[in-house]
Recover the amino acids of this structure.
């Protein structure tokens, strides 16, 4: 039971962090990668929020998380509606089909791997934000996808 609760909290924090990054980029920076008037916007937000865990450093990390994983928006509605605890059978079946496709592609050459993206539900469900904060440091999408797959296949979240 504790493991289920821990996973639910982790999923919620991961989504919260992505949403904060979304807000910073889309509303504070008007959709730009960087604010036109300097990086001070994040410092000002952190100062105005004055909430433990929402330091300037963390807000920058959340912004980078959003920019690195825009595909999470695809599963956000499902996550919020289902409260991240249960998924429908059809969603699970589509995930299994997608995983089979990824395994087939990964057996092929690297050129095909560039087209592979991990389902957002898999990212949220199987990777902690701590893992994701390390993965966003990898600018090469192919390399990041490789490590995402390794984390998921190895079930690194629970180790």
């Amino acid at each position: 039971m504790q493991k289920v609760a821990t996973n639910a909290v982790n999923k919620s924090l991961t989504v919260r962090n992505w949403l904060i990054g979304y807000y910073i980029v889309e509303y504070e920076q008007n959709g730009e990668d960087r604010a036109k008037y300097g990086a001070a916007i994040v410092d000002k937000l952190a100062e105005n929020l004055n909430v433990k865990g929402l330091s300037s450093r963390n807000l920058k990390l959340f912004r980078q998380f959003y920019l690195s994983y825009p595909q999470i928006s695809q599963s956000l509605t499902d996550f919020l509606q289902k409260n991240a605890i249960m998924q429908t059978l059809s969603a699970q079946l589509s995930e299994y089909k997608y995983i089979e496709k990824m395994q087939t592609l990964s057996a092929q050459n690297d050129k095909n791997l560039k087209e592979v993206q991990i389902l957002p539900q898999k990212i949220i469900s199987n990777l902690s934000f701590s893992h994701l904060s390390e993965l966003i440091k990898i600018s090469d999408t192919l390399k990041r996808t490789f490590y995402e797959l390794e984390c998921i296949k190895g079930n690194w979240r629970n180790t």
Remarks:
- Residues 2-28 form the longest helix (27 residues).
- Residues 84-90, 108-115 have pLDDT under 50 and may be disordered.
